[in-house]
Specification:
- This protein is 28% helix and 20% strand.
- By secondary structure, it is of the alpha+beta class.
- Strand 3, helix 2 and strand 4 form a beta-alpha-beta unit.
- Helix 1 crosses helix 2.
- The longest helix is centred in the middle third of the chain and has 17 residues.
- The chain starts with a strand and ends in a 5-residue tail after the last strand.
Length: 105
Amino acid sequence: MAHNGWVMGDDPLTNFALPGSNVYLRRELVAWGDSVKLRYGDKPEDSPFLWAYMTEYVVHTARIFAGLRLDNCHSTPLHVGQLHAGQGQAGQARPLRVCRAIHWQ
């Protein structure tokens, strides 16, 4: 399991949990203890359970609420957020509002 968080002076769109990153080894991460880093990969085949579970979650939540907030989503791939937003919107009579919380320096 890997904590999510913030890396000071780093590009917030860079996925610091990918292989080759030394953020955890160098202790550069300001870790948020209340969340974990989800490793989606590049496509659903890279992590079928996670993609299916989050799709189900987004679709279910979109049926109840008119908007979704993607909180603590630093370095979550943009294509993942776009795909889930589209899946949440599918079949909805009203527009789905999506707010992505990301912090810039």
